């Protein structure tokens, strides 16, 4: 894809008038490509007055199926998941290994990102308040999908000769489908997924993030960075370069530690803003519900709102994409299902809690002043909603957005790298090429406007859902078997006998 | 009764003094010594995916390093003195883990150096020895 993009770029650079700015030029170049990609990935058909993209239907059907097939594990497993994270069942033969908490925190850091701040605003702008309702439903169903993919991630993870571990959809498809006697199919699916995750790593986990970080920075400085996207992009790319190529781990670990703090502060202030808009809360919640079922003024009506809600939810919590499964597979547990339980908290935190809070910040502001954000969308819209109450808020928000973006980019660089090394092995030159391309896309993300970027990253992310969910259908019976066995074990033993004397 | 004494070592001089003291007493009283090294670790930290993927490998390395540089020399010292002993290396929060080990092995007493590896941190958060004195279920000897 990189090569394709570069050749398009080279061709069009020659044809464009010389006075066009760098940012503008790149934008003109990516837009047609984005449209072309979208027409393939988001092939849609008319459905109750709206255009339903096949791929969204694919995800929803998958999530609903897994919710039923796992007997509503997203509700029934919730408390158990919290106890696992708390360490109530800590495996005491191996303190010092990755704990459930750590695996969850890492995966959440990868998903809590700009999508939670900007993505929700995009959903509300396009799909109306009702999109929030469908976003929450999608988050709820997504919990089951996560459960399945993360259980499989741990079950089929691979220990490398150097003692590190690799896991994720490529491995569970290759080895899981092999167990079912579909060796060739499994190999194909694993490779297909690996290619997809590399591309997703360059889009959603990369360009979209750097783009939105730039937009927010620019808003804060009052547009002083207009047309300077390339410069911000280069700085961001340099930071990412230092971490993933230069191996400066301290940046990564500092970001990892600040991000959860930022997320907490963000939620705290969001709740304060909502409370300050208190009189508007009933109307805002009312709008969410009525919008969900009537969707006045939204293109495509109810279906339109639903589709947008689901799309944004997936983009935010990554359920069905399989990326989290790569992060979760590092945990060392004798029962892979336990990691499945833990992972279902992820869409909950990401979508049901954080996205809903953001939606209410925007929703209550809209009730008070329908035009509070002007024509801003994405992060800028959320920022405007905060600004109504705290004039200084855009600055820390920009800082948070920047950190969210960096941590998400670092996580995704790792996901993409896992796909890359699955395909090409641990070849040092190859890995370097991948990492350099990754940094290049970070810079590119700041140079184009949100429109084409959002389209391209959406396409890339949704493309991986196709092989992943198909694989999950085949492997779901294995997960169900493991789940039932684990639950039977839990019932047979009381907690104290599972809990060893040391932790 | 189980005549077993736990000695906490961490490669510091304080740990060394604790070991010497315990060895001396054990020789007189005919006690057995449990040499314990706790590698400071918490299950509630925030890591990058890469750190998680390498965790298993790092853990082995940490245990290996603790064994070869601190625990094994301590064990051979005790062996040289003809004292019966056992060793254990474990990850976890230091004082809590030492107490759990004490309970698990049923030791009669814990011997620890007053000051271990981390100097400045002790000033702020209190030392492992201080916490042990306050929370240990068995008598604690703090060697200055």
Number of helices of chain B: 5
The low-pLDDT segments of chain A are 1-20, 494-503
Strand order of the largest sheet of chain B: 3-2-1-4-5
Provide the number of structural domains of chain B: 1
Look at the structure and name the CATH superfamily of chain A: Amino acid/polyamine transporter I
Shape of chain A: globular
Q: Report the major sheet of chain A.
A: 2 strands, antiparallel
- Reading the helices and strands of chain A in chain order gives HHEEHHHHHHEEHHHHHHHHHHHHHH
Instruction: Provide the gyration radius of chain A in Å.
Output: 22 Å
Strand order of the largest sheet of chain A: 1-2
Q: Into which percent range does the helicity of residues of chain B fall?
A: 40-55%
Layout of helices and strands, plus pairs?
The complex is a heterodimer of chains A (503) and B (144).
Chain A: H1 2-15, H2 22-41, E1 44-47, E2 50-53, H3 54-69, H4 73-76, H5 78-86, H6 100-111, H7 114-127, H8 130-155, E3 158-159, E4 165-166, H9 169-179, H10 183-220, H11 229-244, H12 249-276, H13 281-293, H14 301-317, H15 323-328, H16 336-343, H17 345-368, H18 378-387, H19 394-424, H20 428-447, H21 450-492, H22 495-498
Antiparallel strand pairs in A: 1-2, 3-4
Chain B: E1 4-8, H1 13-29, E2 32-40, H2 49-80, E3 85-92, H3 94-105, E4 109-113, H4 119-125, H5 128-135, E5 140-143
Helix pairs in contact in B: 3-5
Kindly describe this structure:
- The complex is a heterodimer of chains A (503) and B (144).
- In chain A, 76% of the residues lie in helices and 2% in strands.
- Chain A is mainly alpha-helical and 503 residues long.
- Chain A has a single domain (52-498), classed as Amino acid/polyamine transporter I (Up-down Bundle), CATH 1.20.1740.
- Chain A is globular and about 55 Å long.
- In chain B, 53% of the residues lie in helices and 22% in strands.
- Chain B has a five-stranded parallel beta sheet, with helices on both faces.
- Chain B is globular, with a radius of gyration of 15 Å.
- Chain A binds chain B through residues 87, 90, 94-103, 105-106, 109-110, 159, 162-166, 249, 252-253, 256-257, 259-260, 326-327, 330-332, 410-411, 414-415, 501-503, and chain B through 39, 41, 43-57, 59-60, 62-63, 90-92, 97, 100-101, 103-104.
């Amino acid at each position: 894809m990189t090569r394709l993009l570069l050749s398009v770029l080279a061709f069009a650079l020659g044809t464009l008038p010389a006075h066009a700015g760098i940012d503008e030029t790149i934008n003109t170049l990516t837009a047609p490509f984005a449209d072309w990609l979208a027409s393939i990935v988001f092939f849609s058909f008319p459905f109750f007055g709206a255009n339903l993209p096949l791929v969204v239907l694919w995800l929803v059907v998958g999530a609903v199926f897994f919710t039923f097939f796992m007997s509503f594990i997203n509700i029934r497993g919730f408390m158990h998941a919290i106890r696992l994270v708390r360490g109530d069942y800590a495996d005491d033969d191996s303190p010092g290994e990755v704990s459930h908490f750590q695996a969850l925190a890492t995966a959440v850091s990868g998903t809590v990102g700009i999508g939670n701040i900007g993505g929700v605003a995009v959903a509300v702008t396009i799909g109306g308040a009702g999109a929030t309702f469908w976003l929450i439903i999608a988050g709820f169903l997504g919990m089951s999908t996560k459960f399945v993919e993360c259980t499989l991630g741990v079950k089929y993870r691979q220990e490398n000769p150097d003692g590190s571990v690799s896991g994720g959809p490529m491995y569970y498809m290759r080895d899981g489908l092999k167990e079912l006697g579909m060796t060739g199919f499994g190999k194909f699916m694993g490779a297909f997924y690996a290619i997809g995750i590399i591309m997703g790593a360059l889009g959603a986990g990369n360009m979209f993030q750097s783009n939105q970080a730039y937009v927010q920075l620019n808003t804060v400085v009052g547009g002083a960075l207009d047309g300077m996207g390339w410069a911000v992009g280069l700085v961001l790319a340099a930071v990412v370069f230092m971490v993933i190529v230069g191996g400066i781990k301290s940046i990564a670990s500092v970001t990892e530690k600040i991000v959860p703090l930022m997320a907490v502060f963000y939620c705290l202030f969001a709740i304060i803003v909502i409370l300050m808009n208190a009189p508007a809360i009933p109307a805002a919640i009312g709008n969410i519900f009525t919008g969900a079922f009537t969707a006045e003024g939204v293109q495509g009506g109810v279906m339109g709102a639903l589709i947008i809600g689901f799309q944004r939810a997936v983009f935010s919590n990554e359920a069905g994409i399989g990326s989290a499964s790569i992060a979760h597979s590092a945990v060392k547990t004798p029962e892979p299902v336990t990691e499945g339980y833990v992972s279902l908290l992820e869409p909950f935190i990401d979508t049901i809690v954080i996205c809903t809070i953001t939606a209410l910040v925007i929703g209550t502001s809209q009730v008070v002043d329908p035009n509070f954000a002007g024509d801003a969308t994405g992060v800028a819209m959320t920022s405007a909603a905060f600004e109504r109450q705290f004039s200084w808020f855009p600055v820390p928000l920009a800082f948070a957005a920047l950190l969210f973006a960096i941590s998400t980019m670092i996580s995704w660089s790792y996901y993409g790298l896992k796909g890359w090394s699955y395909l090409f092995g641990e070849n040092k030159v190859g890995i370097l090429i991948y990492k350099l391309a990754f940094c290049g896309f970070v810079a590119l993300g700041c140079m184009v406007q949100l429109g084409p970027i959002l389209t391209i990253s959406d396409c890339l992310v949704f493309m991986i859902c196709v092989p992943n969910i198909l694989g999950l259908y085949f492997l779901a019976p294995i997960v169900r078997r493991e789940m039932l066995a684990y639950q039977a074990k839990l019932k047979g033993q009381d907690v104290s006998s599972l809990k060893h004397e040391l932790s | 009764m189980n005549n077993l004494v736990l000695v906490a070592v961490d490669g510091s001089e304080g740990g060394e003094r604790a070991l010497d003291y315990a060895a001396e007493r054990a020789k007189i009283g005919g006690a057995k010594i449990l040499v314990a090294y706790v590698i400071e670790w918490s299950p509630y930290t925030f890591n990058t995916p890469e750190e998680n993927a390498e965790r298993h490998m790092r853990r082995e390395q940490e245990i290996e390093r603790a064994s070869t540089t601190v625990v094994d020399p301590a064990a051979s010292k005790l062996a040289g003195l003809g004292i019966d002993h056992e060793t254990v290396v474990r990850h976890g929060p230091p004082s809590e883990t030492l107490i759990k080990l004490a309970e698990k092995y049923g030791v009669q007493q814990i011997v620890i150096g007053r000051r271990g590896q981390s100097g400045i941190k002790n000033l702020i958060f209190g030392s492992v020895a201080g916490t042990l004195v306050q929370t240990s279920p068995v008598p604690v000897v703090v060697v200055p």
